[in-house]
Amino acid sequence: MSEKERxxxxxxxxxxxxxxxxxxxxxxxxxxxxxxxxxxxxxxxxDKIDTAYYGILDLIIAFSCFxxxxxxxxxxxxxxxxxxxxxxxxxxxxFLLMPGLPIWSLTMAAVWCLVAYGLATNEDHFQPGAxxxxxxxxxxxxxxxxxx
Length: 148
Hints:
The structure is a single chain. The chain has 148 residues and is mainly alpha-helical. It has one domain (9-147). 72% of the residues lie in helices and 0% in strands. The chain contains 6 helices and no strands. The protein has helices spanning 9-33, 38-42, 51-74, 77-96, 102-121, 135-147. The two termini are 34 Å apart.
């Protein structure tokens, strides 16, 4: 494997953490829909927000993170931006939970800071034209066959 083909450890770390965030957000979303009040007890918003809204938010975060993890792994430009956005939003979310879980919140904020650092320092891993939709390559290949 040549030096150009090697994936940086920071990219692998960011992708794995995105999968982990997606899994935890999925579990949190399921817990929120079962009318669990753990998020309301820990958040600075308290019971001002219904648990169903927390559940919907967690499910959106979960599926978006799964997509971002795959996109980071593939090296797409969209994965780069989604990864940076979700790392930043996750840091902010853990800061919101700081009153209820101070040490865990600081630890998780530091982890997400490392994810953002890993993505930002390895921008060359992400292809500049990789924001194209997946079927576009198949369409171009079909056009190439028709021209022959």
